[in-house]
Structures are given as C-alpha cells and as structure tokens.
Design goal:
Elements: H1 9-24, H2 29-45, H3 47-54, H4 56-71, H5 76-95, H6 97-105, H7 108-121, H8 125-139, H9 143-148, H10 153-162, H11 167-181, H12 185-192, H13 196-205, H14 212-229, H15 233-240, H16 244-260, H17 266-282, E1 289-291, E2 297-299, H18 307-312, H19 315-331, H20 337-351, H21 355-363, H22 366-377, H23 388-392, H24 398-425, H25 429-436, H26 441-444, H27 448-451
Antiparallel strand pairs: 1-2
Helix pairs in contact: 1-2, 1-4, 2-3, 2-5, 3-5, 4-5, 4-7, 5-6, 5-8, 8-11, 10-11, 11-14, 13-14, 14-17, 16-17, 16-19, 17-20, 19-20, 19-22, 20-22, 20-24, 22-24, 24-25
Length: about 450
C-alpha cells in the first residue's frame, strides 16, 4: 500500500456522491460498480483519504448504498456492485486500520449486509472473493471483531466448496479463516464443528505444484492449519486422520532442502517458518480438559495423535538438518535465521514430549546441536542477559527497535531451549511430564507474525 500521493478530501466526497447518484438513478450496474471500486483506489492512495471516508457521515452513505443494492435483488451484474462495495469498504479499513477498523467492524448495518450477501450470493466468485477479503480486514488482530463475525464461519467454508477451482477465491477465503481463528479459541471451536479440516487437506492435495498460484494456496493452507490446531485437540485429531502431516512434511522437506542447499529465497524462508510453527501446533500436548463444540467437556489423559505421523514421515532428520544448516546460512548472509531457529526449537520442544521421539532426538545428540546453534545464531550469545525493560519498551523505529526485537526473539528462544533441554535430559516419562509442565500455553499461541514482520506477507 502506498501513501505517496497528497490527500484529496474533496475528491473523496465527490466519488461517494457519484456512487450514490448512480445507484439512486438506476444507471447501468456496471457503471455503478466502476464508480464504487474507485472508492477503494482513493482510500488506499492516502491514509487521510481513508480516515475521511471512514467518518460516520461518509460511511453511512456507503452503508446505505449497499443496503439499497441488496433490496434490489440479485443478478450477476448486481453482484459486481456488491463486490465493488465490499472492495471499497476493504480499502477504507486497510488504508487507515488504526482509525477505521474498530468503528467499521462495530457497524451492525454493515455486518448484516455482509451476512445477507454471503448467504444469498456466495455462488458468485466476485462476491465471495471480496466478502472474504473484507472479513479479513474487519477481524485482523481484533478478538472482539472475530467473535462478532463468528457467524460467517459456516459461510466461508461453503465458499471453499463452492469455488474449488478458483484460486483467487480460495486464497481470500483461507486468509479470512486464518484471520478469524488466529489466537481465538471461540472461533476455532466454531470452525471445528464444520468440515474445514478435511477441506483444507483436500485443497492442499490439489495445489502441490510449484506455480506461484499454488504456492499462495499452500501458504494460506499452512497458516489455517496452524491456527486451527493451536490448543485445539479436536482439530489436531481431525488433521491426524487424513494426509495433513504427510503433506506438511513434503512441503517442509522441500523448503528445508532449499534452505540447506543455499538456494532459498526470503519468501521460501518465511514459508519454512510457518511450516515449523504449524507442525509445532499439531503436536502440542493435549489438554487435561477437552471442550467440544456442543459444550460437553471431557477430563482425560489423551494421546497426542500426530506424534507417530510426523515420526513416520521423517521429521527428526528434517529438524536435525535445519539445526546443522542454520549457522552456515547465517554466515552466508541469510536474513531470518534467528526466526527459523525459534520455530525449530519450539517444534523440538513439543515433539520431545513423546518418549519415542525424545529417544530419537537423543540418538542424534540434538541437545548439543541446539546449544551450539543458539550460540551461533541468536544475536546476543547463549550467556547474554536479556533485560526485560529493553524487551518491553516500544521504540518508534530504527536501530532501537531492531535491538528490542532481537531481545524479544532471544528471550522467546531461550525459554523454548531451556524447556527442550529439560525434556531431552529427562530419563523417565514422569520426569518429562514435570519438565513440560513448565512450558506456558502463552507460547503455544505464538506465531511467526509475533516475531517477524517478514513472515506476515499476504498474497
């Protein structure tokens, strides 16, 4: 998004008025849609434009136009207008999210319109794509908005099944799913009641190619799997029953091979981080109390269903290979080695709760590799003290911000590393259980976006 142009508030008013007039005077729907799509362009051209368009008076006009279009009924041309209006609102939010997201996501009128159109018109690719794009913008990093829009979970899964060959629709639907359930237990459970886990595996099976379009689908599928599996045993179990772990390992092995062979790109390293994160979520230790979508709860010591799957598909060798390759890639000037180490050691921690996997890690002396790699890869060395005051500070930018981000990453890595070493050192299942109990659930909800802006790139 670029804000290089100067703001033009008069143009904002003129464009909204033009859209309003074109709708009220029943001009051709294509003309109405073209005018509406211009709002997106203007909003994204400068944050002051987006702020102005998001103000109550102007936005109420846009809401009214959308409501009027819905009352007119549905047709293929009419749905071009719906898509353009959704795109306009998306541009207003993304153009200035700090000013507009909360207010717009609180609009009952807008939410009702989005739900009505999705319910009636999701068979139109243009509507589904822009509705999902708008939902992502409404709920991004906003738990209140995620809960408010949880009612659309079923519709978005229907979008995926309705448009199985439209990659643009698929990518935006996956992004909406990830945004809805990221760090949100309530929406994860809502989605767990659908067939989303099975649908994701089917989508990945059909998009394992090397094209740019397939890689975008893979990227968002991996993020969805990680978000759905985080602290959610029922989804972990569903993923274990299909080919999810096999597919993830196929992708991880490919990215790890490129990384170890010194041919990976920044995008592929970001993908590797998300794969490590998703795999770590899939092998989290099951909770003592399991909640079900119908409200029932079960108190039990449940087995982790994915340990054996990942062991079968060679995760030990892949992880060990990454630990060996990381120092060399750092010396080669690769960006992001610290982030990759964080997610690798977190994965080792979660896998080491399995006695069989712990035994295999020890057979390869992974503990020594972890310590050696931490000392080489992390920015301040294995013995450095990380001051909490520096980590918790919030500088505006520049070198100070980079320093604090480095401290944050090292502190996170050190917690994972210490817990992994305790597990690997433990000789009995009871000792391993005691060691793993010290690992807090707050880390289970972490994701690459918490540590690296580079890992949050969107299609």
């Amino acid at each position: 998004m670029s804000h290089a142009r100067a703001p033009n508030l008069h143009a904002c008013d003129a464009i909204v008025e033009a859209v309003q007039i074109s709708v009220q005077s029943n001009r051709p729907l294509l003309s109405q849609a073209t005018n509406a799509s211009t709002i997106n362009t203007v909003a994204l051209s400068h944050k002051e434009n987006a702020l102005h368009l998001g103000e109550s008076r102007q936005f109420a006009i846009i809401e009214g136009i959308l409501a009027k279009a819905i009352k007119k009924g549905h047709s293929e041309e009419g749905d071009l207008l719906f898509g353009a209006l959704f795109s306009a609102v998306h541009g207003i939010i993304v153009g200035n999210p700090s000013a507009n997201q909360e207010a717009i996501s609180s609009s009952k009128t807008l939410l009702k319109s989005v739900i009505k159109v999705l319910y009636s018109d999701l068979e139109y690719a243009n509507v589904s794509m822009h509705a999902c794009l708008l939902i992502s913008a409404l709920v991004e990093s906003n738990k209140v908005a995620q809960n408010r829009l949880s009612v659309v979970c079923d519709f978005i899964v229907d979008v995926l099944t309705t448009h199985p060959r439209d990659q643009a629709v698929i990518v935006n639907a996956l992004k909406a799913i990830s945004s809805l359930c990221h760090e949100n237990e309530f929406t994860r459970m809502k989605l767990s009641a659908t067939n989303i886990c099975e649908e994701l595996v089917a989508i990945m099976t059909n998009h394992l190619g090397d094209s740019s379009a397939d890689q975008k689908v893979q990227y968002w599928c991996v993020r969805c799997i990680g978000d759905l599996a985080a602290n959610e045993y029922q989804n972990q179990k569903k993923f274990s029953e299909g080919s999810c772990c096999n597919i993830l390992m196929t992708l991880m092995r490919k990215q790890a091979l490129e990384f170890s062979s010194d041919v990976s790109t920044l995008d592929s390293r970001d993908m590797l981080n998300w794969l490590l994160w998703a795999a770590g979520n899939l092998v989290q230790k099951p909770p003592v109390v399991v909640s079900f979508p119908n409200g029932d709860k079960l108190t039990s010591s449940l087995p982790q269903p994915n340990y054996g799957k990942f062991k079968e598909f060679g995760i030990i060798d892949v992880v060990f290979g990454l630990l060996v390759a990381l120092p060399a890639r750092l010396e080669g000037g690769y960006d992001g080695c610290s982030e990759t180490f964080v997610w690798t050691v977190r994965l080792v921690l979660n896998l080491s709760r399995s006695k069989a996997l712990r035994s295999e890690f020890n057979a390869k002396d992974v503990k020594t590799a972890l310590n050696a790699t931490f000392e080489r890869v992390m920015p301040y060395g294995v013995s450095a003290d990380v001051p909490d005051a520096a980590v918790d500070a919030s500088p505006e930018g520049g070198e100070a911000k980079a320093l604090v981000e480095g401290y944050k990453m090292q502190r996170e890595a050190k917690v994972f590393l210490d817990q992994a070493i305790k597990l690997l050192d433990s000789g009995t299942a009871s000792a391993a259980s005691a060691a793993s109990a010290a690992s807090g659930s707050s880390f289970d909800s972490s994701s690459p976006s918490n540590l690296s802006d580079k890992a949050t790139s969107t299609p």
